[in-house]
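Minimal example, chain plus 1-hydroxynaphthalene-2-carboxylic acid.
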Amino acid sequence: MYPKTLKHPALAPAYEKIAELSALPLWEILGDVVAEAPTPLGVPHIWRYQEMRAPLLDAGQRISAAEAERRVLALKNPALQRPGISQTLFAGLQLVMPGEVAPAHRHTAGALRFVLESSGGYTAVEGERCVMRRGDLVTTPSWTWHDHENTGDGPLIWLDGLDVPMVNFFGAVFGEEHPGDQQPILRPDDASVPRWGSGLRPYGAAHGKPWSPLLSYPYDRARAALMAASAGDAPNPRHGFKMTYANPLDGGHILPTIAAFLQHLPAGFETTPWRTTEALVFVAVEGEGTAQIGDTSIDFGENDVFVAPNWSPIRLRAGRDTVLFSFSDRAAQERLGLWREEADATP
Ligand code: 1HN
C-alpha cells in the first residue's frame, strides 16, 4: 500500500492507526497518484499470424462455435494479469468454420471485427448482415444483437477489438443471449453502406446513438480512399498516409470508446517517433516492416498483430509497400478530455 521508503518514517505508527480506519495519508503516495507523465501499462508485443493460426484451427477441430459460444484466442499482454491486449482494450483472433454459426447475443461492451481470412460469411448486427471479406471492418456497438456465420468453404478468421476492460473498469458489464441462434434479418445485406456511406444524410432524421450508423467499412472502399490520399498528399512524417474510420454524421469515431485507422507506408518509408496516451493495436493488412515501440523492435508481416502500450514512442518502417489497420482507446480518451500526443518523443 505504501512505498517501500516512507517520506516521513517517524509517522509510521500514526499511519497504522489511519490504515485501521481504511484511510491513507495522501502525502506519502501523491507521486504515484499524480505522476508527471504516464507509465506505459503493459509491454509492446507481437502475435504472429502463422503461429496463432495453427492452435486456432486446432480449436476449430476440438470445440464447435456453438459450444464455445465464441471461439476466440484472446491476445493477452504478457505484462498484464487480465485478458487484455492493453489496460483498456481486448483483442482476440476468432474462428468460425464453414457452416458454423456463433450464436446471437448482446453485451454492453462494444466491438469491432477486422477480417483476416474469408471465403464468405457475415456478422449480423441489429437485423442486418454485414458481409465479411478480407480487410472489411464491421462494428457491433454496445447492446446490439450480433451473430456470425461462415457461408464459405474455408475458415473465417478475424481480429476482434473490444472495450471490455474499460466496461469492466466502470462496472457496467451486462450481457444476454438471444432466444434464437440467429437474429431475424430485417434489411438487405450491407444496407448501412449505401444508406449512410454515400456522403448524404437523411433529411431531418436523427440517429441519436453515440456510435457510427455505418456498421460496415468494406476494404475496397477504405483502401481506395487511402490510396487516393496517398497519391495526392504529402506523407505525414509521423504516420505516412493515415485515415480515420469516421462516423459519417459528425466525423467522429466509429464507437464511443474505440477509434480505428488505416495507414499506408510506401516501401522504404520510415516515420519519425510519435507517442500518444492511447494504446494502439496494429494488424498488417499488406506488406511487412519493422515497428520500434519503446525499446522493443518488432518485425511484422501480413496478418501479424502487435500492440503499442500507451505513451510508448512508436516508429514504423515499411520494408515493402505496407497497409496497417489499427484501433485504439482514443475515442474514449477524447470524450473524457484526456487524449494527448507528443511528436518529438525519442524511442
Ligand atoms: C464477444 O461477444 C465476441 O461476439 C468476441 O464475437 C469476443 C470477447 C470478450 C467478450 C465478448 C463476439 C469477445 C466477446
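The longest helix spans residues 49-62. The mean pLDDT is 96.
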